[in-house]
Amino acid sequence: MGSETWGLDQYIASDMRVGNAMVMQIVENLQRIGWGESELFGVHMALEEAIINAIKHGNKESANKEVHVCVEASLHSFFLRVTDQGDGFDPSAVPDCTLDENLELGSGRGLMLMNHYMDMVQYNEQGNSLEIRKSR
Amino acid sequence: MTEFHCIKLSRKNDVSVVRLIDDRVMDSERIAVMGKELMSLTESENGHRVLLNLGNVRFLSSAAINKLIVLEKRLGAAGGYLKLSNLSPEVEEVFNITQLDSVFDICDDEDQAIAAFG
């Protein structure tokens, strides 16, 4: 079990149900190769934000656009790249979700959680491709 | 009587005690329904003291958390009160990371929360 790796390279439809299924597929495979429940929680949170944001905010759930999902995982590390076909965004311009006036906006909370749970969170220059990494 | 699909509602003293049915609150359609059902509590006559027991919740997405924030704000605006209880350590950590522990009144368990309503 200790040396088992798992990976995925797939284009998925910009559909929230497909995104949720993809998140669960990745979580279940990480569990299978030995990731524990409490460590998986943070990865699950980051995955959810990355994939659902790409579908919802990146591709705006367009039937004509796909999200490219790449995963490389082992018992010791997890890497995810999610690329959408949207215009991209500037992560530094996301409003501060802890301010009272922004509480209900929701934007920024996912990024905050990803930054906490992951060792690396990196967007490309256009802001439509996100890489996250976690080592154990 | 209102039929709910994503929450279970019971009464304890004068408090509406709500439990979420899903242990992983992440499906966008279910979250939308949950949001509407939670909002309906702000309109009901007895809905102004609400305890949300998250005891069975193993995972909740930030979209789900957003529904809880909206509930908190709407209840507050209507003169009501919301408390959360029975958070798993992982779920509680999410509230700490996002500084929502200062927005929500979080209690250890249901009894403590009911007592805190006074």
Question: What's the structural blueprint in terms of helices and strands?
Answer:
The complex is a heterodimer of chains A (136) and B (118).
Chain A: E1 5-13, H1 16-32, H2 37-58, E2 66-74, E3 77-83, H3 109-117, E4 120-123, E5 129-135
Antiparallel strand pairs in A: 1-2, 2-3, 3-5, 4-5
Helix pairs in contact in A: 1-2, 2-3
Chain B: E1 7-12, E2 15-20, E3 24-25, H1 28-43, E4 49-53, E5 59-60, H2 62-77, E6 81-85, H3 89-97, E7 105-107, H4 110-117
Helix pairs in contact in B: 1-2
Question: What does the model show?
Answer:
The complex is a heterodimer of chains A (136) and B (118). Chain A starts with a strand and ends with a strand. With 136 residues, chain A is of the alpha+beta class. A 5-stranded antiparallel beta sheet of chain A has the order 1-2-3-5-4, with helices on one face. In chain A, helix 1 runs antiparallel to helix 2 (37-58) and helix 2 packs antiparallel against helix 3. Chain A has helices spanning 16-32, 37-58, 109-117, and strands spanning 5-13, 66-74, 77-83, 120-123, 129-135. With 118 residues, chain B is α/β, with parallel strands linked by helices. Chain B contains 4 helices and 7 strands, in the order βββαββαβαβα. Chain B starts with 6 loop residues before the first strand and ends with a helix. The interface between A and B is medium-sized, with 22 and 21 residues.
Features:
heterodimer, A: 136 residues, alpha+beta, 5-stranded antiparallel sheet, 3 helices, 26% strand, B: 118 residues, alpha/beta, 5-stranded mixed sheet, two-stranded parallel ribbon, 4 helices, 42% helix, 25% strand
Task: Give the gist of this structure.
The complex is a heterodimer of chains A (136) and B (118). Chain A is an alpha+beta fold and 136 residues long. Helix content of chain A is 35%, strand content 26%.
Strand content of chain B is: 15-25%
The chain-level mean pLDDT of chain B equals 91
Mean pLDDT metric of chain A = 94
Structural class of chain B: alpha/beta
Helix share, percent of chain A = 25-40%
**What structural category do the secondary elements of chain A indicate?**
alpha+beta
